[in-house]
Design brief:
The complex is a heterodimer. Chain A is an all-beta fold. In chain A, strands 2, 4, 5, 9, 10 and 11 form a six-stranded mixed sheet that branches. In chain A, strands 1-3-8-7-6 form a five-stranded antiparallel sheet, with no helix packed on it. Chain A is globular, with a radius of gyration of 13 Å. By secondary structure, chain B is mainly β. In chain B, the strands form two sheets. In chain B, strands 2, 4, 5, 6, 9, 10 and 11 form a seven-stranded mixed sheet that branches. In chain B, a hairpin with a 2-residue loop joins strand 5 and strand 6. The chains are: A mainly beta, B mainly beta.
């Protein structure tokens, strides 16, 4: 099955700063999905990217799918305490193959 | 809220016992997928049910089995529990096999 790797594993961010988390695959992906899991919670769907080079924005979150459809990124601007959690990318070919996630903590 | 519900919320079992976890899918969804999430890791795919048939299976032994009912709700059964089975078990429903999956709150299983 498809495998995705995420970096960094942990991201400690000062409130108000920006950060980016990356998702990489050795194979071409049909699509990539992003989920957010709050501490003690369950994964919540954020977005799906399908097209090569696709860029989608949700308020302060910007998602990008690479031209070769082998990588994706999530960029968050002006980080807030509500951004705390673990962000997962997942390849979807009927089953979701999740990366290990990037766990984000925010310093106020 | 996704409309996907799971029961029970928490469960404590001992090694060798059997457990059944339940999931009600979101209205209009005919596909249910089950995932195991160990502490600090991403969810791992167990299997998927589509219209009451198993549609695919991850790298889990046969003691992990499931069912889907005519109303598209689903059960995950685990026999001969092992300590490593301690995890958060998530079900996710979707409108179709490859459609976006929406997760329930999960069942936290502890095996002692």
């Amino acid at each position: 099955g498809q495998q995705v790797m995420q970096i960094p594993q942990y991201q400690h961010v000062q409130e108000g700063e920006d950060f980016t988390t990356y998702c990489n695959s050795s194979t071409t992906l049909s699509n990539i999905q992003w989920y957010k899991q709050r501490p003690g919670g369950h994964p919540v769907f954020l977005i799906q990217l399908v097209k090569s080079g696709e860029v989608k924005k949700q308020k302060r979150l910007t998602f990008q799918f690479g031209e070769a459809k082998k990588n994706s990124s999530l960029h968050i601007t002006a980080t807030q305490t509500t951004d705390v959690g673990t962000y997962f990318c997942a390849a979807n070919d009927y089953k979701l193959s999740f990366g290990a996630g990037t766990t984000v903590t925010v310093r106020a | 809220e996704t409309g996907v519900t799971q029961s029970p919320t928490h469960l404590i079992k001992t090694r060798g016992q059997q457990v059944t976890l339940r999931c009600s899918s979101q209205s209009g969804h005919n596909t249910v997928s089950w995932y195991q999430q160990a502490l600090g890791q991403g969810p791992q795919f167990i299997f998927q049910y589509y219209r009451e048939e198993e549609n695919g299976r991850g790298n889990f032994p046969p003691r992990f089995s499931g069912l889907q009912f005519p109303n598209y709700s689903s059960e995950l059964n685990v026999n001969a529990l092992e300590l490593d089975d301690s995890a958060l078990y998530l079900c996710a429903s979707s409108r179709a096999r490859t459609d976006t999956q929406y997760f329930g709150p999960g069942t936290r299983l502890t095996v002692l």
